[in-house]
Design a protein that fits this description.
The complex is a heterodimer of chains A (271) and B (375). Chain A is an alpha/beta fold and 271 residues long. Chain A folds into two domains: 163 residues, Rossmann fold (3-Layer(aba) Sandwich); 64 residues, no CATH class. In chain A, 39% of the residues lie in helices and 22% in strands. Chain A is built from eleven helices and ten strands. Chain A has a six-stranded mixed sheet. A four-stranded antiparallel sheet of chain A has the order 2-1-4-5, covered by helices on one side. In chain A, strand 4 and strand 5 form a beta hairpin. Chain B has two domains: 92 residues, STAS domain (Transcription Regulator spoIIAA), CATH 3.30.750; 227 residues, no CATH class. In chain B, 70% of the residues lie in helices and 8% in strands. Chain B contains twelve helices and four strands; from the N terminus they run E-E-H-E-H-E-H-H-H-H-H-H-H-H-H-H. A four-stranded mixed sheet of chain B has the order 1-2-3-4. Chain B is elongated. Classes of the chains: A alpha/beta (271), B alpha/beta (375). Chains A and B meet through helix 5 and helix 7 of A and helix 2, helix 3 and helix 12 of B.
Chain lengths: 271, 375
């Protein structure tokens, strides 16, 4: 693999690295309605990459394009240098196996227990025996803080726990890339903080790359080291980079600044 | 050498050294020493465990699973575990034990005995019947509010339900009833032509369709087409908490969701029954004139003389009852649906099964009653 780690980035110029995800001139349209156009960005290995923007700007749709659920109308998406959408269906499913997805409400299969939810990807794509798969699933649930909940059904646990279980399922195959759709929406501040810690921990320990859609400012500033801001009016990306740097930079685009300052500097001053 | 996972065990007095190395991948099975290591911990002489790594080239969750098992086994005997592992591995191991299992969260998978299950089933029957009766009671109150003019039902819901279960069902009713009339005529013709009584096909088809078969055809089609849709729709609303949203607005879900559907079905199914009767007669007429070479006027005349009008009325009674049954079971199972995708599927299946069984039972009851009354 030619991707570069966080250490490499300091020693080597950025151009030398093949980014984990490279998006170029991406346009997405529903029929004749163009949702976004000419969106370009790179996600480096080990990045926690935030897709930010107001409601209806296409954050989730962009994520769906990256996950292979919606075909873009123009532009390219590359994973580790391999073209995603111009390849065959086989390449696509191969590449998708290197990713895990946490959907907004967990999207756990309701007819299966939490353990079975985590076991399914393992049963489909590994040669491990059943006993090993069970151990694996227990470990993943324990990592997500759900030790002992193996035999519960998704309808029997709380929303925050469902999200954690969804994360455990996304991690089942140890994917190098995890997509999270609004991971902290609907969680209390403490659970949301615990989830952020878990994300940072996974990045530190396993070097997992995260692509996260979020508008939880606290968590954006706490964990992201890169990101883009999508604008609903201009229908393209208007700001790129570390959200903390964007907040400080004087030339950040007005709407992105509004977003990052929660409606303006005034509101910030009063709080 | 470094392409396969390695475990080296050393015992120094009471200290158990477990050293992992090599390349751990979930597609490569654990080395044999892994099992030895897990067994070694159980040894009573060991009172200390130390986890180390040398030349660890690559690792994934399979190594983590192994280390977790070691730590778990050690914890069971309350032996202290020291770790000298790479940074990331150590953190993941700590994370796995960061949240202890909640007390009482574990579950035992115990299989129930046959008698216990049968018993539970029988004992559960009474509350279920009670629940259905309370649903019926709510509906009666809903009706009362409708008659008193205090209902919260919206007319547009009623009309859209009528459109859905009435007009949109015409094509499928046409097809099934026409074919059923044809089949009935064919089956009768085979017997009746043997003694030259082809003309009685008109009476057979007429009485058969008008009295009961038209209504049954409509009932069965409606239970699959509309009853299932009601159960799935209201069940999904239940999953999305839409029904709760109605309740918090002070709107009775019975008034708003159930009543219009029950009224629509009870209103439209009799009309559909009349239509199905007509299509069935057309089917019989086609067989009579085209296959049995009966004179068209003669066939129609025979139908009129052989089929008294009371059969149409009896057919309408059947139809109205079936409409009620389909709507009741569809809405009941929708309203009582659980909060998951699986529950919606179950509600839909049960709604259809109960509707069809209900239709058959109701047919038997009405037939006996008619027989006793001599209609």
């Amino acid at each position: 693999m030619v991707g570069c780690t966080a250490q490499d980035k300091q020693t080597r110029p950025l151009e030398d690295c093949v980014p984990r995800i490279r998006v170029r001139e991406l346009s997405v349209a529903f029929g004749s309605y163009v949702l976004m156009s000419k969106v370009s960005f790179d996600v480096q290995p080990g990045d926690i990459f935030m897709i930010m923007g107001g409601s209806g700007c296409g954050k989730s749709t962009l994520l769906r394009v990256l996950m292979g659920l919606k075909e873009p109308s123009a532009g390219t998406v590359q994973y580790d240098g391999t073209d995603f959408w111009n390849g065959t269906a086989n390449t696509r499913s191969e590449l998708m196996r290197g990713t895990g997805v946490l959907f907004q409400n967990g999207a756990l299969w309701s007819s299966m227990t939490l353990a079975e939810n985590v076991q399914l990807p393992l049963q489909l794509y590994t040669d491990m025996d059943e006993a090993m798969i069970r151990e694996y699933a227990s470990l993943k649930l324990a990592l997500a803080g759900l030790a002992g909940f193996e035999d519960y059904y998704p309808s029997e646990i709380s929303g925050g726990m469902r999200k954690r279980a969804g994360l455990a399922r996304a991690m089942a195959l140890d994917p190098p890339i995890l997509f999270l759709d609004e991971p902290s929406a609907g969680l209390d501040p403490v659970s949301s903080r615990l989830l952020d810690d878990l994300i940072l921990e996974l990045r530190e320990s396993l070097g997992t790359t995260f692509v996260i859609v979020s508008h939880e400012l606290a968590s954006i500033f706490a964990i992201a080291n890169n990101g883009i801001f999508l604008d609903a009016q201009t229908r393209t990306a208007t700001a790129h980079g570390d959200p903390n740097a964007l907040l400080r930079a004087p030339d950040t685009e007005a709407n992105a600044r509004l977003f990052l300052t929660r409606g303006g500097a005034k509101a910030e001053a009063t709080t | 050498m470094d392409t396969c996972p390695q475990v080296v065990i050393q015992v120094r007095e009471k200290l158990l050294h477990i050293c992992v190395g090599g390349c751990w991948n979930r597609n490569i099975p654990w080395p044999q020493e892994a099992g030895d290591a897990l067994r070694a911990i159980v040894d009573a002489r060991i009172s200390n465990v130390r986890l180390e790594s040398t030349e660890l080239v690559q690792w994934d969750s399979s190594l983590l699973v192994f280390l977790c098992q070691v730590v778990k086994a050690a914890k069971e005997r309350s032996i202290p575990v020291q770790t000298a592992l790479p940074h990331g591995l150590d953190r993941m191991l700590k994370l796995a034990f960061a949240v202890p299992p909640k007390e009482g969260s574990g579950r035992e998978n115990h299989k129930e005995q046959l008698f216990a299950r049968v018993g539970a089933c029988v004992l559960g029957l009474l509350p279920r019947i009670g629940d259905f009766l309370s649903f019926l009671g709510e509906l009666v109150f809903s009706f009362r509010r409708l008659l008193l003019g205090k209902t919260q039902m919206r007319l547009q819901d009623l009309f859209s339900a009528m459109h859905e279960c009435g007009i949109q069902a015409l094509p499928i009713i046409s097809l099934t009833s026409l074919l059923f009339g044809l089949i009935l005529a064919f089956v009768g013709a085979v017997q009746l032509t043997q003694f030259g009584a082809q003309i009685y096909v008109a009476g057979l088809v007429g009485i058969g369709m008008l009295r009961v078969m038209g209504a049954i055809m409509v009932g069965v089609v409606m239970s699959g087409r509309v009853g299932a849709a009601y159960a799935a729709l209201i069940g999904t609303m239940q999953v999305n908490e839409e029904v709760d949203a109605l309740s918090t607005l002070g709107v009775s879900p019975h008034d708003f969701l159930v009543l219009p559907r029950v009224l629509a079905l009870m209103g439209m199914v009799p009309l559909l029954t009349l239509y199905a009767d007509l299509m069935g007669l057309v089917g019989g007429f086609m067989v009579g004139t085209l296959m049995l070479d009966l004179n068209p006027m003669e066939y129609l005349n025979a139908t009129v003389t052989m089929v008294p009008f009371k059969h149409v009325i009896v057919g309408l009674v059947y139809g109205t009852t079936f409409g009620g049954i389909v709507a009741l079971f569809g809405c009941y199972h929708g309203i009582r649906c659980g909060r998951s995708a699986q529950a919606v599927g179950q509600a839909t299946t049960t709604a259809v099964v109960h509707s069809i069984v209900g239709i058959i039972v109701a047919t038997a009851v009405i037939t006996i009653v008619c027989n006793v009354l001599g209609v």
